[in-house]
Amino acid sequence: MTTQHPNPGGALHGITVLDLGGEIANYCGRMFAQLGANVILVEPPGGSSYRAAPPLAQSTGESLRFAYDNCDKRSIEVNLGTPEGRETFTRLAKSADLLLDDRTQHDLEAQGFGYDELHTQFPNLTVTAITPFGLAGPYSNYVATDATCMAFGGMLWLGGYDDGAPVQAAGHQSFRAGSLFGAVASMAALVSENGGAGEVIDVSVQECVSLGLENAIQFYDLEGHNRRRHGGKQKQAGFGVFPCADGYVFLIAGGIGGNRFWGNFTEWMQDAGVPNAALLEEQRWWERSFVESDEGKDLFWEIFTQYSERHTKAELLEAAIKWNVPLSPVKTLAEVHESLQLLAREFFTEMRIGEALVDAPGAPYRLLGTPWQSGGHAPQVGQDSDVILSELGADATSVATAQGRGNYA
């Protein structure tokens, strides 16, 4: 069985990508594959360790994360510890435009080469390293989990409740950020007018996480204030998560940047006949000291929840739109899957797990002329080795010899 590319007319058709990565960089390769690039997943004998990452499908034992991140790639097994494997890798690198990896410099050098050496040996190849801490600095050779990267980047400190330990966000968000920034930087290098010369792109996942801290660094730099996590509590009166009849909503009636909505919100509450809504007209709500105080937050909570707890998320959203007040339902995962907006845009695509088809998130962008497209399955270990080696010019004897060793190596 070989992988047939689902999108031969994609925007990146004609670009060849070698994906030597794992759980950090594989999503970057997925984005290239589903825009039409020929992405070759270069795996060690027996396959990538990422294939065992939980959660696993009950029916097949496949890693759902690996299956999603590696849709529409081709797989070849290469043992970089043997002369034959290194020769195969050399042929692959000479034919490729881009190489993706997420191993540290130390781990890569243990294979006999580093990122700079790759660039020297293959000057037309762009090499993108997406590693936990980048290729330089005292932590550059440290490995890390998603939680480690979130912690070192500062995001973990801001997640959770103020009276408890930090809480990690779901979904390996730091690795996703690294892959996204890596894809953007890689595309910039590929389209740059640089005489055909490749580049070495150094992406630090820690830095990608720190870029998402909003104004937390500025608060500390300018005011000496170390921002803390708030969980479901209000940051300021009228700014936070509130309960309703069927769940929760996020409201910005006031607080940071929200005072321009305060008049609309006050009219809404008074029109709805909410008890004590007239108190919202008092001047003290415009004083920072009051809206940041427990007294202000508690009073706002008392007024608004009398109304919110009697209405559903859908009813509150409809009313907020009418009154021009920023409010969002806090969607459950089931509600996201059933979202009319996402369904109208055909966001979800089918992914094959064994014999079953399951819904999975689709493209994070749309190209109208050369659309994103997915065939919906990841390759088996080394399933495309014969075809890829033949494309590289390996003769039948070489292929058979490699097969006889049990790996391409």
TrEMBL record:
Keyword field contains Transferase: yes
One Pfam assignment: CoA_transf_3
Domain of life, source organism: Bacteria
InterPro entries: CoA-transferase_III (IPR050509), CoA-Trfase_fam_III (IPR003673), CoA-Trfase_III_dom3_sf (IPR044855), CoA-Trfase_III_dom_1_sf (IPR023606)
Keywords: Transferase
Molecular function GO labels: transferase activity
Family of the protein in this entry: Belongs to the CoA-transferase III family.
Name assigned to this protein: CoA transferase
The organism of origin for this protein: Leucobacter denitrificans
